[in-house]
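4.2 Preliminary Data

To establish feasibility before requesting continued support, the project team ran the inverse folding procedure on a target of 443 residues. The structure was first converted into the token representation described in Section 3, and no sequence information of any kind was made available to the design step. The complete token record follows.
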């Protein structure tokens, strides 16, 4: 029961709601005090004059002191917690958690909690969350005939009452509903519908209606192509002869939405073909994404082939990763069919690979010197150290300065050196030589 003090104290009441639209995709690991996986948080929301967040653990929750029997039982339950995101050091509040039944005429499931204190409870211990670890059996919730989950959607509502003359940590009331960002969806529909298209792209047996302005804005290749008055006057369409239709479809998807279908990336050889297409059509962000994913999937069997691909696509990040992978696995890699492709790729790549295997440092890299050696200034020492960085670190440094992250390693070094020496304007080169990529790998 509430104390007399709480019953008579000023109070504020409000509610927040967490709509989970893809329940089956949530992580389902069991959550403990020392294992943080399996937790899905809502956005921070405002209610009762303060800030809150709902977290859901589909795989359940147990504390470090719970018995094995309790842990085993709680793995069968969904756990829901209320997190305090405000600034108060001792906020008294009570709350109730409601699972909304989405079938007509069915009652919701309401679970009340006692009054608790949120905020700092000591100088080194924070108690900013409270919840119900056995609020609902997962098997019952996931039975769509029961109404708690309908069309893979679950709705959780938390009603909160705060007590006391506490100054609100919310600057101003805002609508509880935040509209979704539909830009990607809208532009994808604009592409697939062919609405208002002014150019037809013919790839293999397929026709892709498209829009010159979008192609020009997102690809320097198309910018240069359509800048020609002769090409602008060509109303018959544009043949695409160097790319497969399914690969070109994903390239267009990236140009319009900044996204590529994950299922498409799993298709055999799609990443390899898409990397070459991104390089040819100067889609820098897509090229970086393909490089990263190809680096993640290196094996003894494919690393030699991907090394040749990196050379052809001018993908220095992938090349660097391949050479680093080959170094400790040289004997196994040189016994694969792909190594024959390396040997046939030309003297330059063969020499580079052999130098790495022999442990020879990159040309010009040499021994690092400090600012105190050979009269180097601090700026010169910073530049010299930077020249020894790997491609990912160079890109991170460029991104932190608001500069383009695409291009060959030599271009990245030159761009970053200009920034260090102050010869590059702030934010200049956002497109860079990578073909109009932004500083990241998204749209």
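Position-by-position output of the design step:
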């Amino acid at each position: 029961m509430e104390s007399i003090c709480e019953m008579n104290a000023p109070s504020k009441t409000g509610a927040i709601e967490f709509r989970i639209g893809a329940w089956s995709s949530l992580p389902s690991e069991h959550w403990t005090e020392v294992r943080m996986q399996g937790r899905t948080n809502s956005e921070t929301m405002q209610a009762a004059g303060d800030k809150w967040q709902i977290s859901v653990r589909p795989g359940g929750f147990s504390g470090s002191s719970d018995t094995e029997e309790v842990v085993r039982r709680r793995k069968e339950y969904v756990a829901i917690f209320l997190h305090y995101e405000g600034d108060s050091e001792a906020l008294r509040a009570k709350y109730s958690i409601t699972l909304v039944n989405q079938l007509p005429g069915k009652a919701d499931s309401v679970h009340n909690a006692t009054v608790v204190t949120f905020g700092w409870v000591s100088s080194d211990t924070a108690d900013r969350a409270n919840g119900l670890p056995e609020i609902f059996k997962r098997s019952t919730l996931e039975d769509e005939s029961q109404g708690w989950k309908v069309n893979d959607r679950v709705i959780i509502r938390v009603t909160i009452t705060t007590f006391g003359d506490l100054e609100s940590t919310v600057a101003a009331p805002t609508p509880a509903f935040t509209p979704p960002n539909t830009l990607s969806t809208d532009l994808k529909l604009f592409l697939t519908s062919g609405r208002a298209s002014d150019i037809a792209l013919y790839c293999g047996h397929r026709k892709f209606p498209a829009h010159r302005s979008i192609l020009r804005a997102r690809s320097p290749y198309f910018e240069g192509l359509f800048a020609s008055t002769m090409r602008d006057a060509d109303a018959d369409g544009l043949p695409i002869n160097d790319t497969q239709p399914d690969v070109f479809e994903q390239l267009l998807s990236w140009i319009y939405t900044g996204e590529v279908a994950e299922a498409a990336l799993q298709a055999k050889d799609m990443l390899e073909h898409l990397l070459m297409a991104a390089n040819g059509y100067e889609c820098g962000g897509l090229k970086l994404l393909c490089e990263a994913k190809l680096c993640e999937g290196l094996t003894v069997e494919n690393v030699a082939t991907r090394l040749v691909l990196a050379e052809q696509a001018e993908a220095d990040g992938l090349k660097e990763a391949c050479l680093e992978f080959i170094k400790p696995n040289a004997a196994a890699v040189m016994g694969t069919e792909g190594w024959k492709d390396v040997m046939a790729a030309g003297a330059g790549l063969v020499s580079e690979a052999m130098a790495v295997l022999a442990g020879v440092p990159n040309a010009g890299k040499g021994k690092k010197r400090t600012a105190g050696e050979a009269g180097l200034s601090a700026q010169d020492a910073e530049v010299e150290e930077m020249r020894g960085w790997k491609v990912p670190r160079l890109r991170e440094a460029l991104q932190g300065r608001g500069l383009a992250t695409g291009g060959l390693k030599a271009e990245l070094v030159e761009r970053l050196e200009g920034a260090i020496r102050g010869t590059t304007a702030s934010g200049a080169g956002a497109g860079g030589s990578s073909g109009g990529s932004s500083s990241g790998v998204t749209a």
